[in-house]
Every structure is written in C-alpha cells, then in structure tokens.
C-alpha cells in the first residue's frame, strides 16, 4: 500500500463506520425513549401503514363501545321508570280492593279515589316527562337506534318508545282516574295494565342483554386489535437494550479508530525529516 498525505483511506473508512454506528445508536435511543419500534416511516413503511389502519379501527370501535354503553344506560333509566309505574299500578290495585270493602263509608272511598287520581297523574308524568339527556324516553311515535357495528348500518337495535299512558290498559285507567267504580278500573283490568308494564320491562331486559353481549364483543375486538398493533409498533425493550449497548461500543471503537487512522500518516513526517 502506498503512503499518501492527501488521501487517508483508513480514516475515510473509519469515519464512514463511525457515522453508521452513530446513526444506529441514535435510532436505538429513539426507540427506547419512545417505546416504539417504528419511529419514522423509513423504519418499516408497510408496518406503519398497517398500524395506522389498525388504530383507525380501534378508535372506531371505542366510539361504538361508548354508544352501546349509552344505549344500555337509556334502557336502564327506562326500566327504572317502568318499575315505578308498576309499583303505582300495584298500589292502585290495592286501593281498588279497599274501595270495594263493604265496611268503607263514602268519606273513605273519596279518600281512596283522591289517592288513585294523584297516582294516575304521576303515571302520566312518568310517561310524558321522563327524559335522558333531554331526549324523551316514552314517545308514542319515537324510536332510538343503537348501532352495533362500525361499518354495517343495518346491524342495530331499535328501542321503541312505548308511551304506556296512551293506547293501553294503563291509558284507560288514566282516563277514569277519579272513578274506582268504572269498568276500566276493575281488578282484572288493573291486572292487565300491570301485565303491560311487565311486558315492557321484559322487552327492555332482553334489549339490555343484547347490548351487553354486543358491548363485550366490541371490547374483545378492541383488545385483540390493540395487541396486534402493539406487536407491530411496540419495541422489544430487552432486544433493543442489547442493541443499544452494542452500538455504544461500536461508536466508541470507531471513534478511536478514526483517531488512530488520522495519526497513522504521521509516519510520513519521519520520512521527510
């Protein structure tokens, strides 16, 4: 090999290795400090593209889970109202039985009818004034759709807003609220009105169950997609820590070799003396 002052091949090569090792060291530091295996598109362009699509799906499913949870909350509030309505009708049935007692005088019966009338007013209030976040819960012409899929708008559960004080046995009771002697206030009619409320509660309970299963399925999808995305994006700390130690040693070694290569041509000065 010739001895040259203008061109130092050894120093050039050592400088190239130093730059490469320093770049690798910086990349390991970026990965360990961010916790991400992919810190720039150049690290894994295909993996980054897949990760972005997975994150989009995860965010959509999280929003869907919130919507389903809100649907469950609406149904639970509705069931609370229906439970109160059932208690009221049961009390009216009790008042009817006491009203029909032969030992009760006119004043007693007037008292029972007054309480019955007040309870009917409360039934109407429950049916017409019950709301969730400003949305009426019992609207005879209303429905509420709870979507169960991000991409399929046909996959949904429809909550029917049955107004139990209109077009029902309960409605007939309300119409005759101050007259416990009316046929609509007979004991068997009151029992039928209570059955209507029981049917509404049963329907409500079935819908809650469906939404709970749907919510569980969505949460499972979020968990699985998050795990898949983590395998693409998250750095292996143990592996990267070992790589960091290796890069640190290589950077120090290559820096030392650059210094050695730069001083190697000093022998040329001895030849010129």
What can you see in these coordinates?
This protein has 273 residues and is mainly alpha-helical. 71% of the residues lie in helices and 5% in strands. It has 7 helices and 4 strands. The chain has helices at residues 9-34, 45-99, 106-129, 169-175, 187-233, 237-264, 267-272, and strands at residues 131-132, 135-136, 143-147, 156-160. The strands form 2 sheets. Strands 1-2 form a two-stranded antiparallel ribbon. A two-stranded antiparallel sheet has the order 3-4. Strand 1 (131-132) and strand 2 (135-136) form a beta hairpin. The longest helix is centred in the N-terminal third of the chain and has 55 residues, at 45-99. The radius of gyration is 39 Å and the shape is rod-shaped. It starts with 8 loop residues before the first helix and ends with a helix.
How far from one another are the termini? 21 Å
- Helical content stands at over 70%
> Tell me about the biggest sheet?
2 strands, antiparallel
CATH topology of the largest domain: f41 fragment of flagellin, N-terminal domain
Percentage of residues in DSSP E strands? 5-15%
- The main sheet orders its strands as 1-2
CATH architecture of the largest domain: Up-down Bundle
Q: CATH homologous superfamily name of the largest domain?
A: f41 fragment of flagellin, N-terminal domain
Query: Pairing-aware structural class of the strands and helices?
Result: mainly alpha
């Amino acid at each position: 090999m010739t001895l040259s002052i203008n061109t130092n091949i050894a120093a050039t090569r050592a400088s190239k290795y130093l730059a490469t090792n320093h770049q690798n060291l910086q990349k390991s530091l970026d990965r360990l400090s961010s916790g991400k295996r992919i810190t720039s598109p150049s690290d894994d362009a295909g993996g980054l593209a897949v990760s972005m699509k997975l994150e989009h799906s995860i965010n959509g499913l999280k929003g869907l889970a919130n919507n389903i949870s809100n649907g469950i909350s609406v149904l639970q509030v509705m069931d609370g109202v229906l439970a109160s309505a059932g208690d009221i009708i049961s009390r009216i049935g009790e008042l009817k039985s006491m009203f029909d007692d032969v030992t009760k005088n006119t004043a007693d019966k007037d008292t029972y009818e007054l309480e019955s009338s007040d309870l009917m007013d409360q039934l109407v209030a429950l049916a017409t004034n019950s709301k969730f976040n400003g949305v009426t819960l019992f609207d005879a012409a209303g429905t509420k759709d709870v979507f169960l899929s991000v991409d399929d708008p046909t996959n949904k559960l429809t909550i029917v807003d049955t107004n139990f004080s209109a077009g029902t046995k309960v409605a007939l009771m309300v119409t005759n609220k101050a007259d416990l002697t009316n046929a609509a206030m007979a004991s068997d009619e009151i029992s039928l009105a209570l059955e209507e409320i029981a049917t509404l509660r049963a329907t409500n309970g079935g819908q809650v169950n469906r939404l709970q299963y749907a919510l569980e399925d969505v949460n499972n999808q979020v968990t699985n997609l998050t795990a898949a995305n983590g395998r693409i994006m998250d750095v292996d700390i143990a592996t990267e820590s070992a790589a960091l130690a290796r890069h640190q040693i290589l950077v120090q070694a290559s820096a030392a070799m650059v210094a050695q290569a730069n001083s190697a041509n000093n022998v040329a000065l001895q030849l010129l003396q």
